[in-house]
């Protein structure tokens, strides 16, 4: 009887695992089937590097959106990674246990806030702030980068903190025993030793930023144009899909799926790089 | 090996005076008072958990890292109190190096491991650093083995080589005292022999303190032996401290004798 139960539960779990994997596979196949024909029709180079996105005229160039995604994400990384890394160092090396136990759940909470709330908050505070202080429309690359920088903090902080804490205690002791100061130990031994974990944290954070839609849709301005300054509005790959999917049909719809394929490939590449780096050790 | 031939020099390098150490509520070391002679090997022996590592780590203030650890009493290096309020811990650790139980090579090249100490202590010139690296490796007889792989990862070396690299890394800082906490326990007999020979060499110039579970090792290489034991309250105490040859030929009492002859521990 007991054996039967074991067997049964094993099968049930297997079935569940299988169904979630097949759901993923189905989605992937669906996106590819929907998107690939239009890429073939427009031409891969024209699709990726085309400057004009005008579905009503049959023009499907997503280059401005690629630039949009890249600039906003890069901005988020430039703002978010140093802050996140400092937080991780503080938490793992300096914070007393009590403070750490206060900080960790707070950071997890940050990860739990729905992205639309971030977007709304950005629209109410960041956008007017940029408009009034720095000029321009306010709806801009900078606004999106600030929001995303905050949103990637939990990923960057927790993964780099874990990789610092996972280092053998002997590294730190060894460095201190050589007469290095605490800071020298952090800079020359701890951070280099945790490098792969930290790089993975950054990559996963960037992956998160590039895939984010709701938060940035509200603050980017969504203009389809190659920006000339960080105060210009842009449209990203994700917001392009989010904005137009509601009413698109025919080749237009297919072109949005094709945009999805591009995103999918970028995020897959980032995640597998992160995996590769962490596993290499 | 003839121990009596190497009568330790009589000047005192390190000195403890009524040292008591608490880990929070736990009284780990009780009233430890002894003098460690300069340019000699002092072995700390005793059963597991009696506080050998704790005592060793007093000398480079490694216990400072442990929250709730308190040290009372005086510990003197060259006559000055290393636990004084104004004492500089970083400077102390440059003078008192440490080699751990397991080789703790950092995940970087052999060369970077060697120069990490001097580099942070103000040696800037590339040539000076290269000389330090070669000199330290030569001291531990590792130069010929690794001179062609200086820029390969240190973790790629065999364990015995790694441990000698750790010793070289400690020597590169030019310490006066080197602490070894069971540094041979993870090694094969051949590597152990090499490191013992090395310690005997180093003892010409450096003050060496080792913790060991290996009585033959203590007998073979140490000049002075400190036998520690826990008392009824689990407090680690220094039960006997004498020249090694004295302790091994005529132990003070039954307890020491039983321990060094392997009847317990
Ligand atoms: N960080 C710590 N916090 C609390 N108690 C500790 C700590 N480190 C060691 N102790 C306790 O102090 C006592 C002495 O420990 P220590 O490691 O110095 O013994 P040891 O003689 O080196 O033992 P071994 O031969 O097993 O290495 C033990 O009872 C141990 O449990
Ligand atoms: Mg020990």
State the helix count of chain B.
10
Question: Could you give the order of the helices and strands of chain A?
Answer: HHEEHHHHHHHHHH
Main beta sheet of chain A? 2 strands, antiparallel
Strand arrangement across the biggest beta sheet of chain A: 1-2
> With helices defined by DSSP (H or I, 4 residues minimum), what is the helix count of chain A?
12
**Biggest pleated-sheet summary of chain B:** 6 strands, mixed
Poorly predicted ranges of chain B (pLDDT <50, ≥5 residues)? 1-5
Mean of all residue-level pLDDT scores of chain B: 92
How are the strands of the biggest sheet of chain B laid out side by side? 6-7-8-3-9-10
- Superfamily (CATH H level) name of chain A: MetI-like
Structural class of chain A: mainly alpha
Proportion of β residues of chain A?
under 5%
What is the rounded distance between the termini of chain A?
44 Å
Largest interface: A-B, 18 and 24 residues
Notes on the structure:
The complex is a heterodimer of chains A (281) and B (265). By secondary structure, chain A is mostly helical. Chain A has one domain: MetI-like fold, CATH 1.10.3720. Chain A has helices spanning 2-42, 44-49, 63-94, 97-112, 115-133, 141-165, 169-177, 182-193, 195-211, 214-217, 237-244, 250-280, and strands at residues 53-54, 59-60. A two-stranded antiparallel sheet of chain A has the order 1-2. Chain A starts with a helix and ends with a helix. The mean pLDDT of chain A is 92. Chain B is of the alpha/beta class and 265 residues long. Chain B is built from ten helices and ten strands. In chain B, helix 3 crosses helix 4 (126-139) and helix 4 (126-139) crosses helix 6 (159-171). The radius of gyration of chain B is 18 Å and the shape is globular. Bound molecules: adenosine-5'-triphosphate and magnesium ion. The site of magnesium ion has 2 residues of chain B, from helix 1. Magnesium ion is lined by residues 52-53 of chain B.
